[in-house]
Amino acid sequence: MRPPRPATRLRLAAIAVLAWPLHAAAIEVPPAMMQGLQAEKFAVREQAQAQLLGWARQRVEDAPELLYQQSRVAADPEQRQRCLAVLRDLVTDEYLRNGLGYIGFRMNPNTEAVKVPGEDLPRFAIRVLQVEPNTPGHKAGLLGGDLLLGVDHTTWHQDDTAAVVSEKIKALKAGTRVTLKLIREGKLVDMPLVLARRPAAADLLQFQFGFGGGLLTPETLAAAEHAAKAEYFRRWLAARKAKD
Question: Which end of the chain is more exposed for a tag (fewer CB within 10 A), N or C?
Fold first, then answer.
């Protein structure tokens, strides 16, 4: 087969250049959802916003820019405000995906040698003291008193401290699926879970044993996390505005 002539190659290149932005141009915020954002009834506006968020989460590559533009140029103030709220939710999703790995438990300061069923030599484990509520560890069934031998193929050594174990867990990205290797009541247990993003106040939790009367309350922790998410979005928005 003969190669295309130079003139033909130029025409093909021109078509490719013209077609390149059509993908972005073809995607737009559904007009029906935009119309719903300014509906007279509050319930309809709320429903439209929820639908828009679902639509945007299926288009995470294109939706942030589309929502950013609509938050600035949409005709109705309610539309602009709600597009900005959906954009904030998308950026928060990004915040949660891109953080350090987190299981959500407190542990003894040092590892201890433990007998592993079926093995002649002992291994080193870190003892779980307390599991924080509503964390991956809590949802997976991790309990105080469990002995953590490792995470996937990562194991501990005799001189490892709680800080070393924490750093090894933080080295894994939020959203990573892992398997905890445990000893519970003398038996080996494999516990799969998905790591969350390390909370903004996680490093402060090691100084507190229980919430009651401690240095931190659930409300304080929630406020710290809310502030971290708000700051992440503020920086994201500032960086995007700088490109205008």
Answer: N
